[in-house]
Protein 1
Amino acid sequence: MQSMTGFASRTSQARVGDIPVELEWELRSVNGRGLDLRLRLPDTLGFMEPALRAQLGERIARGNLSLALKLRHAGAAPLGQVDRTALEAALDALNIVAEQAQAQGVALQPPSALDLLGWRAIMPMTQDFAALDRNALSGAVLAGFASLVDDFVAMRAREGQSLAALIGAQLDEVVRLTAAARAILPDRAEAMAEHLRKALEHLRDPVQLDPARLEQEVALIAVKGDVTEELDRLKAHCAAARDLLGTDGPVGRKLDFLMQEFNREANTLCSKAQHIALTRIGLDLKTVIDQMREQVQNLE
């Protein structure tokens, strides 16, 4: 069982041919009705998107996932900063050119500092990976990605265990409230009967009632006010939810549907209560069920 909320990041280094590269990964997810994958890859790695999507689809069933990957030459100066090694090489090259030009009587205008900063090698804003071998680069990417997904799934599993424990405690509360509702049914029945007797006594003076019809109406009131079926269904729903919590694999959709059934029974219980204590229990049930549904909606 996994939560749909998760995060993992990883930085790995590899050699692609003779070139050391660094891969910086970040994978995060939030709740979603289905599986929505958004990948942000360097242009050089656009060809990897189908393979990465396929691997995520094998491990993840639901959630809005965002994957970001940065690729850079290991040990290179950060983008937007001066590469001192490249600057020294450029200045040495300028000296050689200036000396050769002077020897041949050619006057050259020396470059300004701003001219030098405009050279891509001295202050790189992007890195060129066109020379990298695609097969070797693909292997490095997949190796780092597999470890990233392992970390990501492990975190979602830990979150899922915490959610399952919390939902289990909420199910315990539903069971307790259901038992409390069942325990007050005798007092409720007596109170309803007393209320009905008083109502009938009030009607008997001015109105002659047909005993057979009166018996039918009393039976109908008793049927409409019976909440035994709702309490039985709540008990059955609790058992079904516990079975799902003990199941391997994604169960979030099934539990979410079951929460609707929980809520329906609690609503019916409140509407048929006609007893202040039972109404209070029904409202407590609705509160716990609503809290439980919030947690269920985080499950994959």
Protein 2
Amino acid sequence: MPVPRRSLLLLLLLAAVAFARKEFVAPPVLPAREYPARDQHRAENVTAAADPYETGSKQNIFTVRYGDAGCLPIRLIISNDGDQPVALTDMKVQLVTGGRARLSPLDSDDLYRRLAKPQRNDQPSRFPLPVPRGKVKGGVKGETLREMDAARFAARAVEPHSTQAGFVFFDVEGISSPLSGSHLYLTGIRNAAGGELMYFDIPLDNYLQARPSVQ
């Protein structure tokens, strides 16, 4: 049965709109040991890796250019090759730059403010207002808010023989080379018995050395 012309035009229009709408899709994740910037604890059967998304081509997976707001997205990958889960509820992440600046990841509110007003504001509001989900406020679209939630590293545990991944975002405005000589440190990862694993030290120079080119 032939499709009516009006229905066919409607289907084509909907397909074109869906194709044009850019949505965040997390890239495939590899085991942490496959990334150049990593720290593998063989005795504990856990490997942590970092994959910075600082180039324009890599940031194309996002609906916004976080770099334009002075933010550096780093994908954190944690693989558990052991037979027991590891807990991430107490995990702390810190980026120590080559210039010895110590940076903690931006939380959701901080990241929202950076995207809403990329220019630095060293006088935060005394009474921050909640951001309604799905609303457009301060130039940040609802789809961007949903992307932030979808992209952020949110795993609370890594099950045996599995990998968890997600993004952490750092405010690197004013830092000319945030990756050169930098290290990403992870602390507070615990085994099934509650014991804390040795801290992870991920040298980001390993990523820079393996990166084929900057685009």
Protein 3
Amino acid sequence: MSTPQRITSRDNPLLKELRKLSQDGAAYRKAGRCWIEGDHLARAALQRGVKPAVAVLAESAWASLAGEFGAVAGKTVLLPDELFDAISGLESPARLGLMLDLTAETAVQAGTATVVLDRVQDAGNVGSILRSAAAFGFAQVIALKGTAALWSPKVLRAGMGAHFALHLVESVEPGALESLDLPLLVTSSHQGELLHRAQLPWPCAWVLGHEGQGVGPELMARAALSVRIAQPGGEESLNVAAAAAICLHASAAAR
């Protein structure tokens, strides 16, 4: 294990960058780097073969975490607890974080089971959908323009490590979905065949829409299949993340 670099100044350039990455949801796009905090996310990244650029540990965590995380990155930094708290985006700082270099994915993978996010704006919903996609065998997630930033800290926390199992493409125009060469499946609260009775194709691309407006008319018109989820309890609609989990599980079960 190499000796970590100890930083004690709030004005250190690295700390300024980390603060921005942890507090500005879109900062990663310009920086080409993202910040993940906590041992769960860190382990998820490492298990998928991610090589962090920088590992950051609080002094109080060094004795317990150095053996596992002290030599995983190209550079290891040790901070006084109060400085770690200042860069943390959590109410209860986790005392460990990794800075990851990002390579922007711009190419849609044809023929890969996919989830398409059409202007889904809540970070918690987006992260939850990514978790469901990874769990049920959908290897690609495409975020159309207007969707929450996929690598923002809030989406990363909600995704719980799913990011590192997926091919993620964002800021996509609807026309680019033609290259998927897959049937598009959409949900509606008031029209279409009941999901549990539908013959679901595989592979396919499920399109999940805006929390209030649903899937846009252009994609609804291009869909090969529109389904609705049975709701015998009488609710008007389901949360988009809940609907996604039900639909993706149905596809996995039908394979």
